[in-house]
Design goal:
Layout (H helix, E strand, L loop, with lengths): L4 H6 L3 E7 L5 H12 L3 E7 L4 H10 L11 H10 L6 E5 L5 H10 L3 E4 L7 H14 L3 E3 L7 H11 L6 E10 L20 H4 L3 H18 L3 E9 L10 E8 L4 E7 L7 E9 L2 E6 L6 E5 L5 E3 L8 H4 L12 H21 L13 H19 L5 E2 L12
Helix pairs in contact: 2-11, 5-6, 6-12, 7-9, 9-12
The structure holds nicotinamide-adenine-dinucleotide.
Length: about 400
């Protein structure tokens, strides 16, 4: 019988506490389900709402032990740190304005952290959190979950193996329609956190989906955006927060790109698409058909690559749980980040080196670069689309244990 890799390293499952993702949250259930898919974690504690009473009730309704259903995130962290059988890892999926404080408290108490994007609301917070992660030597996994798809990992591995040659062009778009309906512009007296820039951050569209698009293009190409010329704002009449961002990109290898994200394209569902062209060929991938990666080599027939099909590279094969031809999707991709983080955490705790492929999940360095990109996009747009430099780290410091 095969021993589960985390159990082989640690002799037990990791104990996971969750903060946020209570009633009404789509992504909260996703985190909890992703954590369970590979049996790496035991869910032990929860703080699921900003309202103390609802937080405890929601935890009990999900089956958490009554004494581990907490009134708030800070209360959970303090109490779990004091328990002999307390949580090892904390997953944070609260509204954006609390990611920073909760992550800082969790790291300070010695927890490893899994946090949803955007990492923070400001560049200064991102800088401070990155420094805290590096000092703590804890694992910090940022759930840019699209990096978990087998065919996204295949694309990254193909670019890294030189199958595209020198990357020259890229195009990424994340187009949604959830905010296209003008009749749904919110009442300024009753704003949700997303419609309040103090809570949702300086740019709704960049925090919600631009951050994913930016991370995806960096993940696949291994390149950084060195300069951006952008136009950002609301396109639906009466809206104040941003629902559109478009930008031209200059990459740190000289490649040119375009970036187009909106939540206000009527009728569109969740169209995250990327195209990368190099001197030897092009790749195309779209999240709504995640099992297919189109490869168009120069002077050769186009190929339609599928998980565990011919040509699968090892990094992609590890991201797929079933044999070729059986569909996997959003849950499994999300779970790949949880599984990789679990292996990294188990190895860190035991002082052994993790497989380098395990350590490819987005981390605090990626979170900081995401905030730096948003900052440059906003400054460029405010300067009428003038080219603005972006922070680049050509060799991101990856977690090594
Ligand atoms: N990775 C992804 O694809 C993805 C998708 C959606 C949302 N997100 C991120 O997840 C986070 C939450 O977004 P959402 O769509 O779930 O928001 P939401 O408003 O739908 O739900 C937020 C949930 O968190 C709870 N909550 C709020 N403040 C809290 C606090 N201080 N402590 C504990 N619980 C609290 C609320 O009660 C609610 O249940 C955001 O940072 C968002 O960017 C990520």
């Amino acid at each position: 019988m095969n021993t589960h890799p985390v159990i082989a390293v640690l002799a037990r499952r990791l104990r996971l506490a969750v903060i946020g993702g209570g009633p009404g949250s789509f992504i909260g259930a996703m985190h909890r389900q992703a954590a369970r898919l590979d049996d790496c974690y035991e869910l032990v504690a929860a703080a699921l709402s900003s309202n103390a009473e609802r937080s405890v009730q929601a935890g009990q309704a999900l089956g958490f032990a009554t004494d581990r259903c907490y009134a708030s995130g800070p209360a959970l962290l303090a109490a779990e740190a004091a328990r002999a059988d307390g949580a090892d890892v904390v997953a944070i999926m609260t509204p954006n304005d609390s990611h920073y404080a909760l992550s800082m408290q969790a790291l300070g108490l010695g927890f490893d952290v899994i946090c949803d994007k955007p990492m923070t609301n400001t560049l200064a917070e991102a800088h401070s959190l990155l420094a805290a992660v590096q000092k703590s030597e804890r694992v910090f996994c940022l759930t840019h979950n699209y990096t978990g798809y087998p065919m996204v990992r295949q694309a990254r591995a193909m670019v890294a193996a030189g199958q595209l040659g020198a990357v020259r062009l890229l195009q990424v778009e994340y187009v949604q329609g959830g905010r296209a309906d003008e009749s749904r512009v919110p009442d300024p007296q009753q704003l949700s956190w997303r419609d309040d820039p103090q809570r949702g951050g300086p740019s709704l569209v960049m925090g919600d989906i631009g951050s994913h698009a930016h991370n995806l293009l960096r993940f696949i190409t291994g390149l950084e955006v060195s300069a951006v010329a952008a136009d950002v704002g609301p396109i639906v009449p009466g809206r104040v927060v941003h629902d559109y961002a478009g930008a031209l990109l200059r990459m740190n290898n000289g490649a040119r790109g375009s970036f187009w994200v909106t939540q206000a394209a009527a009728g569109v569902e969740n169209c995250l698409r990327i195209r990368v062209s190099g001197s030897l060929g092009s790749l195309e991938w779209a999240q709504e058909q995640p099992q297919v990666l189109h490869f168009k080599p120069l002077h050769a027939p186009a190929q339609c690559l599928t998980p565990n099909g011919p040509g699968t590279l090892p990094f992609a094969a590890k991201a797929s749980r079933i044999v070729a031809g059986h569909p996997e999707g959003f849950h499994e991709a999300f779970a790949n980040l949880y599984r990789d983080a679990a292996l990294a955490i188990a190895c860190r705790r035991m002082g052994v080196l993790a497989d380098p492929d395990v350590l490819q999940f987005p981390n605090a360095q990626d979170g900081w670069l995401g905030l730096a990109f948003t900052d440059s996009v906003l400054r460029s747009s405010a300067a009428n689309g003038r080219w603005m430099p972006c922070a680049t780290v050509t060799q991101p410091e990856r977690q090594t244990s």
